[in-house]
């Protein structure tokens, strides 16, 4: 499902003394099946964009197109429902939204609300718990008897149960330890790859943007100021610092090493694994030359 923001502008509390313009003429195209990261300093407008993506907010001016549906200021509430079904949002701490007595009831709540027959919804729930890495026995448990990481997986299964075409991740690993963070981010990446799920990640983590995204957009003071691949975006440390953003640690490390050694490696590495494999190839080449 292609997504297109065209001159998207938004103000909170318009026409009141508390009016606050949060987005200014944002243009952004997100291709179906891509993994788009949106990064930016705090207050730059990321969450405001995110809330337009499943029509929790409507533009003050401009438009946002999701598949064949165009949302503008005048769009009626009833026309937004199909969009909310097709775009799933995983908010920070999604487990705070769990409320049913059992995991099963929580996962089937959304689909049944949209008219999916109970048996079909239950079948789907059984597949989904496995997909998010939990044993089937968890379905009969209370979500509140699970660990934080397990609860988060249940909440993710609940979002996936709606069979979204697009999934929007708002700092989905907040509060998890490094291992839990990686597991959840890897899970979303697998879903993105296996199901061709258009994925939009709103994050403060440059490491995650570099590792998972194939396109990055930088927000700054309500404007989309730069778009490109992770390699393009993270090649320019100076421009990023103008937007009060850092490059991933591994890029700093690589640059420092190059400066000290007085030479350049053949490419800029975005992750530790990429760097390790480049170094081992590079050493092998040197050995072969001896
Ligand atoms: N409900 C609101 N009412 C008024 N102003 C708001 C509201 N929500 C956000 N803003 C303002 O809109 C601007 C953009 O905020 P937004 O939350 O979209 O930024 P953000 O990039 O997501 O920030 P963060 O990284 O801290 O979550 C900020 O100036 C913020 O203070």
UniProtKB/TrEMBL annotation:
Enzyme Commission number, as recorded: 7.-.-.-
Keywords: ATP-binding, Cell membrane, Membrane, Nucleotide-binding, Translocase, Transport
Top-rank taxon, per record: Bacteria
A cellular component term, taken from the record's GO annotations: ATP-binding cassette (ABC) transporter complex
Keyword Nucleotide-binding: yes
Main location as per UniProt: membrane
GO molecular function annotations of the record: ATP binding; ATP hydrolysis activity; ATPase-coupled transmembrane transporter activity; cobalt ion transmembrane transporter activity
Enzyme class: translocase
Subcellular location: Cell membrane
Coiled coil: none
Membrane topology: Peripheral membrane protein
Residue ranges constituting the ABC transporter domain according to the UniProt record: 3-246
Family annotation (InterPro entries): AAA+_ATPase, ABC_transporter-like_ATP-bd, ABC_transporter-like_CS, ABC_transpr_CbiO/EcfA_su, ECF_ABC_transporter_ATP-bd, EcfA2, P-loop_NTPase
A Pfam family reported for this protein in Swiss-Prot or TrEMBL: ABC_tran
SUPFAM superfamilies xref list: P-loop containing nucleoside triphosphate hydrolases (SSF52540)
Family: Belongs to the ABC transporter superfamily. Energy-coupling factor EcfA family.
Quaternary organization: Forms a stable energy-coupling factor (ECF) transporter complex composed of 2 membrane-embedded substrate-binding proteins (S component), 2 ATP-binding proteins (A component) and 2 transmembrane proteins (T component).
Protein role: ATP-binding (A) component of a common energy-coupling factor (ECF) ABC-transporter complex.
Entry-linked NCBIfam families: ECF_ATPase_2, PRK13634.1
Protein name: Energy-coupling factor transporter ATP-binding protein EcfA2
């Amino acid at each position: 499902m292609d997504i297109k923001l065209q001159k998207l502008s938004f103000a909170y509390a318009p026409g009141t003394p508390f009016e606050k313009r949060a987005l200014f003429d944002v243009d952004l195209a997100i291709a179906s099946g891509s993994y788009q990261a949106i990064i930016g300093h705090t207050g730059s407008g990321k969450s405001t964009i995110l809330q337009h993506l499943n029509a929790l907010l409507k533009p003050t001016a401009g438009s946002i197109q999701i598949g064949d549906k165009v949302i503008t200021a005048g769009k009626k509430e009833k026309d937004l429902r199909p969009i909310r079904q097709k775009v799933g949002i995983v908010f920070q701490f999604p487990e705070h939204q769990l409320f049913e007595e059992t995991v099963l009831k929580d996962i089937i709540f959304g689909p049944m609300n949209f008219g999916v027959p109970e048996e079909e919804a239950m079948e789907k729930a059984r597949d989904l718990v496995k997909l998010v890495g939990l044993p089937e026995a968890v379905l009969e448990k209370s979500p509140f008897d699970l660990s934080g990481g397990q609860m988060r997986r249940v909440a993710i299964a609940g979002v996936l149960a709606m069979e979204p075409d697009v999934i929007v991740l708002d700092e989905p690993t907040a509060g998890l330890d490094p291992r839990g963070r990686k597991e959840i981010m890897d899970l979303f990446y697998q879903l993105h790859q296996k199901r061709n799920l258009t994925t939009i990640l709103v994050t403060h983590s440059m490491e995650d943007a570099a590792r998972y995204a194939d396109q990055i957009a930088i927000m700054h003071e309500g404007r989309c100021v730069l778009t490109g691949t992770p390699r393009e975006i993270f090649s320019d440390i100076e421009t990023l610092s103008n937007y009060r953003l850092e490059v991933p640690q591994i890029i700093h490390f690589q640059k420092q090493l190059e400066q000290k050694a007085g030479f350049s490696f053949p490419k800029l590495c975005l992750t530790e694994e990429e760097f390790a494999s480049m170094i081992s190839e590079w050493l092998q080449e040197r050995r072969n030359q001896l």
